[in-house]
Write a structure and sequence with these properties.
- The protein is an alpha+beta fold.
- It is 38% helix and 21% strand.
- The chain has five helices and eight strands.
- The protein has a six-stranded mixed sheet. It has a two-stranded antiparallel sheet with strand order 6-7.
- It is globular and about 65 Å long.
C-alpha cells in the first residue's frame, strides 16, 4: 500500500480523540500509540466508483505503535468517533498489518460496530495489498473486510452482515465442542460419557449445517 499525503496526530497532543473513554482505555491509547496519521480516503472523488447506499467513503488511518499489540477498546474508540468505515494500517518495528471491523453508520452519523476486529499478519508493507473490487464504495468496503479477515468470515452469501453472524455462531459452536470433548475425555462414568458423546455429535451436526447454509444476496 502506498503512502499518501495526510495529517499526523501525535496521541499525547490530541486529548479529544479519547474523550468519553474509560481511564483504562485512555491509558492504553497513550501507552500503545505513538502517532495516528490520516493517510487517505477512498470515495467517489478518488476512484471511479459510485458512492451509493450508506457508505460514501472509506478512511485509511496509519497508526504507529509503541508495541506489537493494540487493545480492541482503543480501536473501537477511534471507530466510534468517526462516521465512516476505517481501514487501519498498524505499524511497528518495520512491519505492518491491516485491521478492520465491520461497522454500520446510521443516517444521524451514529456508528455501530457489528463484528470483532479482523487483521492480517505482520509483514513488510510492500507485501500487503488490497484489491479494489465492486460497483459501489460499500461493496469495496465489504470486499476489504473479507480480504483482511480471510477464512474467519464465512462465505455463505453475498451479505456480509449475515456471514459475520454465521461466523460468530460457528465460533461459539467450536468452543462448545472443544469444551464438551475435554469433559468427555476426563469423565469416568459411562453414562455421562455417553451423554457427552451424544451432545458432541449434535453440536458437530449443527456446525456442519452452518457450513453448508446458503442464502441469496
Amino acid at each position: 500500500m502506498q503512502k499518501a499525503g495526510g495529517i499526523a496526530y501525535p496521541t499525547r497532543n490530541t486529548p479529544t480523540l479519547a474523550n468519553g473513554a474509560s481511564a483504562a482505555t485512555k491509558k492504553s491509547f497513550v501507552d500503545q500509540i505513538k502517532s495516528i496519521y490520516w493517510e487517505n480516503k477512498i470515495s467517489a472523488d478518488t476512484i471511479n466508483i459510485a458512492a451509493e447506499n450508506k457508505v460514501t467513503e472509506i478512511e485509511i488511518f496509519r497508526i504507529n505503535l509503541n508495541q506489537d499489540t493494540i487493545d480492541e477498546s482503543v480501536l473501537r474508540l477511534l471507530d466510534k468517533g468517526i462516521p465512516y468505515p476505517i481501514i487501519f494500517i498498524l505499524q511497528y518495528n518495520g512491519k505492518s498489518k491491516l485491521c478492520v471491523a465491520y461497522k454500520e453508520i446510521s443516517s444521524t452519523g451514529e456508528c455501530h460496530i457489528v463484528s470483532q476486529y479482523y487483521h492480517t499478519e505482520w509483514d513488510l508493507e510492500s507485501n500487503i495489498e488490497l484489491e479494489i473490487s465492486g460497483l459501489s464504495i460499500e461493496s469495496v468496503y465489504h470486499g476489504f473486510i473479507r480480504q483482511i479477515a480471510g477464512d474467519r468470515i464465512s462465505e455463505n452469501s453475498s451479505n456480509i452482515k449475515y456471514d459475520i453472524e454465521i461466523s460468530k455462531q460457528k465460533d461459539k459452536l467450536v468452543i462448545e465442542i472443544e469444551r464438551a470433548e475435554k469433559m468427555a475425555w476426563k469423565e469416568k462414568q459411562p453414562k455421562k460419557k455417553f451423554e457427552l458423546a451424544d451432545r458432541i455429535k449434535k453440536l458437530k451436526r449443527q456446525l456442519e449445517s452452518l457450513e453448508h447454509q446458503k442464502i441469496g444476496g
